[in-house]
Specification:
Length: 243
């Protein structure tokens, strides 16, 4: 498993897929910066090496280019957490993104606009991933929350960096923790899974069922299980097609 600690980023532009899908209040203030703080070790390591950082992420579930989902709203919080000035590109592709990336100097940080402003991101479009890949020298995946999805900025873009790709500190730590529990753990093992969608957890559940002794299901997806068992869930969230 190649991580950022196996690479010297001096004079390199690191294209980092982070998960900055943070909650915003009605005034577009970040109400929980945990995900930004979790990416700090990776960003700091690259900057300390003498490299530059290009951050790409999604925010919410926009339908096209919706300003309320613009990453420009969270730039101030990224600056607070990192303690450094952060540049912002009002697009994640095209000339705006290319120019911003080309002008980025060692020690600087650039945030690209919301990847999901383009349907090609979730569709895993190869052309879109190639555009993103052209912006950096090394690809770093540090977005644990979206790493399981075959999106343009995760699985697909990795193909554009056959020798210059790695995991960030956060993702590497999560993988180590999962391996520790599933492969080297002492029995009994209890797994706790949360989230709103059963559809995004079914594969995980199936993969770990025979490796754990107990499983606790929480979050919004609980209601799909309850309804499937004949329970009454009222108006609670439910994926009927997953019953």
């Amino acid at each position: 498993m190649k991580t950022i600690f196996d690479i010297n980023f001096k004079n390199k532009k690191a294209l980092i897929r982070v998960d900055f899908n943070v909650p915003l209040d009605e005034n577009f203030n970040v109400s929980d910066a945990n995900r930004i703080e979790a990416a700090k070790p990776t960003i700091d390591k690259i900057l300390n090496d003498g490299g530059a950082v290009i951050l790409m992420s999604h925010l919410g579930r926009p339908k096209g280019k919706e300003d309320k989902y613009s990453l420009s709203h969270i730039v101030y919080k990224i600056e607070e957490v990192l303690g450094k000035k952060v540049k912002f590109a009002s697009d994640c592709r095209g000339e705006i993104a290319k120019e911003a990336a080309a002008n980025l100097q060692n020690g600087e940080i650039l945030v690209l606009e919301n990847l999901r402003f383009y349907a090609e991101e979730e569709a895993g479009d190869v052309g879109f991933s190639k555009e993103l890949a052209s912006l950096g020298d090394v690809y770093v995946n540090d977005a644990f929350g979206t790493a399981h999805r075959a999106h343009a900025s995760t699985t697909i873009i990795a193909n554009e960096f056959p020798n210059d790709k790695c995991f960030g500190a956060l993702l590497a730590k999560e993988i180590e923790s999962i391996n520790k529990v599933l492969k080297n753990s002492e029995k009994p093992v209890t797994a706790i899974l949360g989230g709103s969608k059963v559809s995004s957890k079914i594969t995980i559940i199936e993969n770990i069922l025979d490796k754990v002794d107990h499983m606790i299901i929480g979050g919004g997806m609980t209601f799909t299980f309850i309804k499937a068992m004949g329970g009454n869930i009222g108006d609670s969230i439910c994926e009927d097609d997953k019953m």
